[in-house]
UniProtKB/TrEMBL annotation:
<dbReference type="InterPro" id="IPR027995">
    <property type="entry name" value="Galactosyl_T_N"/>
</dbReference>
<keyword id="KW-0472">Membrane</keyword>
<dbReference type="InterPro" id="IPR029044">
    <property type="entry name" value="Nucleotide-diphossugar_trans"/>
</dbReference>
<feature type="domain" description="Galactosyltransferase N-terminal">
    <location>
        <begin position="60"/>
        <end position="146"/>
    </location>
</feature>
<comment type="similarity">
    <text>Belongs to the glycosyltransferase 7 family.</text>
</comment>
<keyword id="KW-0808">Transferase</keyword>
<keyword id="KW-0479">Metal-binding</keyword>
<dbReference type="InterPro" id="IPR027791">
    <property type="entry name" value="Galactosyl_T_C"/>
</dbReference>
<dbReference type="Pfam" id="PF13733">
    <property type="entry name" value="Glyco_transf_7N"/>
</dbReference>
<keyword id="KW-0325">Glycoprotein</keyword>
<comment type="pathway">
    <text>Protein modification; protein glycosylation.</text>
</comment>
<keyword id="KW-1133">Transmembrane helix</keyword>
<protein>
    <recommendedName>
        <fullName>Beta-1,4-N-acetylgalactosaminyltransferase</fullName>
        <ecNumber>2.4.1.-</ecNumber>
    </recommendedName>
</protein>
<keyword id="KW-0735">Signal-anchor</keyword>
<dbReference type="Pfam" id="PF02709">
    <property type="entry name" value="Glyco_transf_7C"/>
</dbReference>
<dbReference type="InterPro" id="IPR003859">
    <property type="entry name" value="Galactosyl_T"/>
</dbReference>
<feature type="transmembrane region" description="Helical">
    <location>
        <begin position="7"/>
        <end position="29"/>
    </location>
</feature>
Length: 313
């Protein structure tokens, strides 16, 4: 009899404990009047606070960079350039925008005049510019595209460039703040065809008392600091010299620059390349043939160019 009573008591105890457990579980479940679900308003506030924290890390007063890319018939290179430079600068958290300065006229390519035109079109919205070749891609993350407050910053220095190694070289990638480029009156407009416009610009920089700065503590060299994607066999450079071009373009130009540039903006196109926004400025440059007849090498100029090339060889 005692055994039966003991079993009965245990059975009752188990039932009581089970009932208490069920009641506890039911009371913890949300019901319509006491729902503990996430409040949509609070959730939106939390998301806004989360995104605001990123904005605080990238303040709106950071200097804005306009990347000026002189351009003609280089679309395959542009397709590689835009995504690459975007990833590179995003890692540095540099606010930037790419402007492709597309020469739309019939004259020979004029890199310097394109940069002058691009500068005039962006100078009021940006703090500094990068004169950037489309075929030169930076690989070393220690190449900082920082605001060049103390003077021109030459990213592609001669000790790192894949091809050019002379001390006064400032081509490839050069950064200047807006005030300094304005002070120099930009670049010379006399350089139709390829080459030498950077060398003349170097003289302008030195005469203005500015010092060219270059990245420091770069451990890579000419073979692995940049990727040079220009195919010289597929796209030959226009190195012809006609009329008295060779003589004139080897002197300091004190006549032309930003204040003498003649151009028109044919159209402006916005496009994206692999989600990277790019602005294409289609530019028509004007040529005063009384000053620079070599903007078009006619038969007379071509004949002279061939004679110069033959005598040089």
């Amino acid at each position: 009899m005692n055994i039966h009573n003991s079993m009965y008591v245990r059975f009752i105890g188990i039932i009581v404990l089970a009932a208490v457990g069920v009641i506890f579980l039911i009371s913890s479940l949300p019901i319509s009047d006491t729902c503990k679900c996430e409040n949509p308003v609070e959730r939106d506030i939390q998301h806004e606070q989360f995104h605001r924290s990123f904005k605080e890390l990238s303040p709106s007063d950071k200097h804005k960079l306009a990347i000026l890319v002189p351009f003609r018939d280089r679309f395959d290179e542009l397709l590689r350039f835009a995504p690459h430079i975007s990833r590179f600068l995003n890692r540095q958290r540099v606010p930037f925008h790419i402007f492709v300065l597309n020469q739309n006229d019939r004259y020979r390519f004029n890199r310097a005049s394109l940069i002058n035109a691009g500068f005039l079109l962006v100078k009021d919205q940006y703090d500094y510019i990068a004169m950037h070749d489309v075929d030169l891609l930076p690989l070393n993350d220690n190449l900082k595209y920082e605001y060049p407050k103390n003077g021109p910053l030459h990213i592609s220095g001669p000790e790192f460039h894949p091809k050019y190694h002379y001390a006064t070289f400032i081509g490839g990638i050069l950064l200047l703040k807006i005030e300094h480029y304005q002070l120099l009156n930009g670049m010379s407009n006399k350089y139709w065809g390829w080459g030498l416009e950077d060398d003349e610009f170097y003289v302008r920089i030195k005469e203005a008392g500015l010092e060219v700065h270059r990245p420091r503590n770069i451990t890579s060299g000419p073979d692995d600091t940049f990727l040079h994607i220009h195919d010289r066999l597929h796209r030959r450079r226009d190195t012809a010299k006609c009329f008295n071009q060779r003589e004139v373009t080897r002197r300091r130009d004190r006549e032309t620059g930003l204040n003498t540039l003649r151009y028109s903006l044919d159209s402006r196109r916005e496009l994206t390349i692999d989600d990277v926004p790019v602005t294409v400025l289609n530019l028509n440059l004007e040529c005063d043939k009384s000053q620079t007849p070599w903007c078009e090498c006619d038969s007379k100029g071509d004949a002279k160019s061939r004679l110069e090339t033959k005598s040089k060889s």
